[in-house]
Amino acid sequence: MAMRRKSITSRWMVNGVGVIILVLVFLVVAGTLMLRYLYYESVSDALYEYADATSGTFSVYLSDSSHDWATASREFLANFQDKSQVEVQVLDAAGDVQMTSTGFMPDANLKADWQTASQSSDGYGLWTGRYSSGERVMSLVTLVQQNDTVSGGLRVVVSLRLVDRQLFLFSGLLVLLALLVVFFVMLSSSYFVSSIINPVKEIGRGAQTIAAGNYGHRIPKRDNDEIGDLCDTINYMAGEIANSEQLKNDFISSISHELRTPLTAIKGWSETLSQVGDSNAELTERGLRIISDETSRLSALVEELLDFSRLQDGRLAIRTESFNVINELEETVLLYRPRAERENIRLYYAETTDIPPIEGDKDRIRQVLINVMDNAVKYTKSGGVIRAEAARVGDTVQIVISDTGIGIPPEDLVHVKEKFFRVNKNGSIPGSGIGLALADEVTRLHGGRLDIDSVVGKGTTVTVTLPIKKGA
């Protein structure tokens, strides 16, 4: 079952805006509760002050010896001035309501505040709740004592309707502010996400176009930011793919030519020998020699391709042993001296005997030296000079093969060690374009490096640097 696709916009809204909404909800709820606490605390403080003043006034009426409890209560309530704002109830010793400033007895006999006052050390009892009518009120009971005995109490009751209305307005204002914040966050988020989504979609379409083989397509860079950098990277990648594709095509064309030449020679001489038979021994010998040479050429080319395949897959094996690299250089010189003489090229070798052994794969190192020497012979004209020498430089051995050949242009010099690259693109000089890439990789696997210096028309110098065996 395929996974359901989630867009960046939906993820942003859930992960980004959703978190902001949750935070705002928390802030609104916390703010409302904080305001409610502050408002109710303010009302309760005012009630305590008012209750103290009221109980003091009531005590004055009780202090009159001509007044009993009922008389003092009636006169106190008759002269009470704040009936429109506060309700005062006179309670008996059991906490039951005897009289009220409104003249109406409450529809329910509330005793929570009375019980709190009776159990407290200061004689106060606060209660917040609803009447049966649904009105929210706050009441405060103050115990009244005569001769150190609780004779009753006074209950001051105030409605919380205006307070709750104010709280509702403030809560609504907080909610409205939160909605405005959410609106602007979603608006800015939508713009921000669009500024990312649209370029990403454009990049996706461009990448699909490039993937379809249109390597000349370029994605326009809108902004100088991370997305702009991504556009530059993809455009650079497309250019590199186009170059690699061109190099690959040139390589296929070159390798096809390299294979066709020996195959044509082998086929032609095979047909010739089959027709001549044993009648011409000299021609037969010549033909067999050419077939053998071309077969060796094919074998070397196939081996080079196999090594390149191993290089691409990371399977190029290096067998480590201690050997004298000078011996490999001397054998390479001996191998190419006859060819150099045939092509009227002077090949000089400066013999060296004080070079310590190195550790590595001598067959691979010989392959590197043969590749470098082969290029020197191929690109040096008749009458030219090739020089091979070696020297110890610190903890390394430097093998230098220089020639007076045609040289390499500066624009090609930086690419000569890349796979498939050929300086001679017209195919007049044979080559696969992978020899130097293999040589450079083999040298690197031995912990060394391969450096190439060249001047057009004057020649090329290749320096192979390899580390000396430790302790040597």
What coarse outline follows from CA principal-axis ratios? Answer: rod-shaped
Helix fraction by DSSP (H/I, runs of at least 4): 40-55%
Count of DSSP helices?
10
Instruction: Name the structural class.
Output: alpha+beta
The CATH homologous superfamily of the largest domain: PAS domain
Q: In what range is the share of β-strand residues?
A: 15-25%
From the 3D structure, determine the CATH topology of the largest domain: Beta-Lactamase
Describe the structure.
This protein is α+β, with helices and mostly antiparallel strands. The chain has three domains: 8-166, PAS domain (Beta-Lactamase, 2-Layer Sandwich), CATH 3.30.450; 226-312, Orthogonal Bundle (Helix Hairpins); 317-467, Histidine kinase-like ATPase, C-terminal domain (Heat Shock Protein 90, 2-Layer Sandwich). The protein is 55% helix and 17% strand. It has ten helices and twelve strands. It has helices at residues 8-63, 69-78, 112-119, 161-211, 226-276, 281-313, 325-342, 362-378, 410-413, 435-445, and strands at 87-91, 97-100, 124-130, 136-146, 149-159, 321-323, 346-350, 358-360, 385-393, 396-403, 449-455, 459-467. The strands form three sheets. The protein has a five-stranded antiparallel sheet. The two termini are 64 Å apart. The mean pLDDT is 84.
